[in-house]
Amino acid sequence: MAGTTIARDPVRARARRRRDRSTRAGYAFLSPWLIGFFGLTAGPMIASLYLSFTDYNLFTPPVFTGLENYQRLLTDSNFLQAAKVTALYVVFGTPIKLAAALAIAMLLHNSRRGQGFYRSAYYLPSLIGGSVSIAIVWKAMFIDEGIVAQVGEVFGGAPAADGGWVGDPGRTLPMLVLLTVWQFGAPMVIFLAGLKQVPTEMYEAAEVDGAGPVRRFWSVTVPLLSPVLFFNLLLETIHAFQIFNSAFIISNGSGGPAQSTLFYTLYLYFRGFRDFQMGYASAMAWVLVIVVGLVSLLLFRSSKSWVHYSGDDK
Amino acid sequence: MSIATAQPQAERQRRSAVLRKRARARRAGGSVLFHLFSLAVLIVILYPAVWMLMSSFKPSNEIIGSVSLAPTGGGFQNYATALEGIGGISFWTFVVNSLILAVGSVVGILLSCSFAAYAFARVRFRGRNLFFVCMIATMLLPFHVVIIPQYIVFNNLGMINTYWPLLLGKFLATESFFVFLMIQFIRGLPRELDEAAVIDGAGHPRIFFSIILPLMKPALVTSSIFAFIWSWNDFFGPLLYLKEPGMYTMPLALRLYVDQTSTSDYGAQMAMAILALLPVLLFFFAFQRQLVGGVATQGLKG
Question: CA of B256, closest CA in chain A: separation in Å?
Answer without folding.
Answer: 10
